[in-house]
Amino acid sequence: MKRCFTLAGKSSDVRVLSKEESLEALLSETFPDSGGASLWIADSNSARYLPKHVHSLVIPPGEAEKGIKTVLAIVDAALSLGAGRDARFFALGGGVVCDMAAFAASVYMRGVDVVLVPTTLLSMVDASIGGKSGVDHGGYKNIIGSFYPASHIVIDPCMLETLPERELKSGMAEIIKHAMLSGRDAMEELKQLLPSALKRDVASLRQLIERSLEVKGSIIEKDPLEKGIRAHLNLGHTFGHALESALSFTGCTHGEAVAWGILRALKAGELLGITESSYRAEVEKIVTDTGYPVIYKASPERIVHAIGSDKKKKRGEVHFVLQKRRGETLLSPLPEEIILESVKSGCTQ
Ligand SMILES: NC(=O)c1ccc[n+]([C@@H]2O[C@H](COP(=O)([O-])OP(=O)(O)OC[C@H]3O[C@@H](n4cnc5c(N)ncnc54)[C@H](O)[C@@H]3O)[C@@H](O)[C@H]2O)c1
Fold first, then answer.
1. Whether the predicted pLDDT of 315 surpasses 80
2. Which residue's CA is the nearest one to ligand 1's atom 32?
3. CB–CB of 74/106 below 8 Å?
4. Residues assigned a catalytic role
5. How far, CA to CA in Å, does 33 sit from each of 30, 86, 101, 201?
6. Which residues, in sequence order, are CB contacts of 161 under 8 Å at separation 6+?
7. What is the spatial distance between Cα 84 and Cα 228, in angstroms, rounded to a whole number?
């Protein structure tokens, strides 16, 4: 797949490598010695995919590293290379590395080129595309950041071979979400490819990644700065973030929380008479077949309280992403009793 998405006037070339293509060959073809310094940023798990003979900074893995301290380490590494304004940063890793390296690129010498080479399923279908960069601070996720689309995004699905099972599933929740937002064809394709993709069949993963990128790409092209339709990408995230918070960010992965949140949003829509029951049941089967837990041992009241603190409130109200059926999405506040009932249907005390 070769595609170019334009975000707020800046174009991002997206390449998903076929079986015959290699990252190193593509890089030497796309970036023949441009004169500027190149710095690769990876974590100790993604570093195994670093091309030979490049300058690199390898950081420890995990969200705890996604802070200003690491951004300063990237700046120091660039300075010690003598990198000027024509430098290029390459991020090789999951969402943590991509978000942080893109943020560092956006501020180093007021902005240098950044190329993302995502290595987790989540970063391939979500974090690498859309231009959001950032780091965590003071207990807040992505509180310092910028809008800085990468000039190139290069995806090699073969890198998923080494990704731990739970991380693979974490990314699958975003693929399910994108298929739901897209409509009939994408959902049928997902149902057909899911079993083989979960067994890491690269061709199935590649097809799902490409479809997901098309869906997210077309949404963000229409609304790069999240003034309207881009908010649909938060499907499942309001309930999901609240679950993560109620479980103190240790009881589930982000993907598990999003999958659970999608089911809660559909349940709330069904209780309101908006969502077709057969559609809710169809998605619940996909979520269960993927192996996500659908019931959590958690306090519904704690989850509802966490929803009240959602940072995406508008005029004091939380707006939920709901669906009538596949491809038909709307944003709406919800009555408190509906929120509580839908949360309760996904919890056991
Ligand atoms: N910018 C955006 O639009 C956006 C969207 C969604 C999420 N995010 C951000 O993404 C981050 C989460 O990303 P993530 O789920 O990729 O987590 P991650 O970057 O922490 O990666 C998960 C784990 O997988 C390891 N790993 C990465 N690639 C590997 C590979 N190929 N083989 C083996 N291990 C590998 C990593 O070292 C890490 O331990 C969060 O910080 C979130 O805020 C950003």
1. no
2. 163
3. no
4. 110, 132, 174, 216, 226, 230, 234, 237, 241, 254
5. 9, 12, 21, 35
6. 200, 202
7. 37
